[in-house]
Fold this sequence. Notes:
- Helices cover 36% and strands 28% of the residues.
- By secondary structure, the protein is α+β, with helices and mostly antiparallel strands.
- The protein has two domains: 3-64, no CATH class; 106-260, Thrombin, subunit H.
- The strands form two sheets. Strands 1-2-5-4-3-12 form a six-stranded antiparallel beta barrel. Strands 6-7-8-11-10-9 form a six-stranded antiparallel barrel.
- Helix 1 runs parallel beside helix 2 (34-105).
- The protein starts with a helix and ends with a strand.
- The model has no long low-confidence stretch (mean pLDDT 79).
Amino acid sequence: MSETLLRRALLVGLLVLGVLLSTVTRQNAPTLPGEFAASVAPLFSFSYRFGQNTRAAVAALFDRRNLREAQRQMLTQLQVLQQENQRLVLENRRLQATLRVQAAQGVGVAYVAAVLDDDPSGFYHRLYLGAGSKQGLRIGMPVTTPGGLVGVITEVTPSRAVVRTLLDPESRVGIRLADTPGRGIAYGAPPRMLRVELSPEAKVKVGDKVVSGALQGLYPAGLTVGTVTEVMPMAAGALKQVVMVQPAVEFSLLEEVQVLKPL
């Protein structure tokens, strides 16, 4: 190899090494002979800026990856917090409903149960609860809501219970008028009413409130049952007068009920 070619190869090698070093830091760039400094200075400046931009781009890429990971973790934490908040909201709603029942009706609540379904036949009016004997429920326990009386538990399994509502044709509830003397029995009259038989002497009129009385010890006295909507004509000599009562509770909309301690 001639001396000229050797010098050119050496110069090219120095240039390549200088470019590589300058991409890392300008302070480490090689010192070239004076006659070449002016001609290669722009190249070193470009390579330095290229190196700086490359490092910045790589750093930004890793920052974005870290940011995405941080966002993913934050979203996961947010979902957990939202679920916990929803649980607390439901728990607070249950507690408020229980306190309203205890304050307004003066009864002890044994358990708050979710309503899973109602009777699909349309003839029997039953509710199916998502709680059973494992939660302390048993046959004969009254069921209510802040709005009024619902019914009584008639069947229990370890994790489920059946409630016979006031609308059920087999339902019988001892009642009395809330604001005037008069007592009787309310019978389920599907699909949406109660048929109440009172003594003929009772001074009942449309709009009167009806509350639970005492019938075989099934229900605490004084729980709201409904409102009189119609007073049926009474024949001469009749032993009972009949009125129609609109229940205070809309059974098809129930999501939770309060199961009362048995009498």
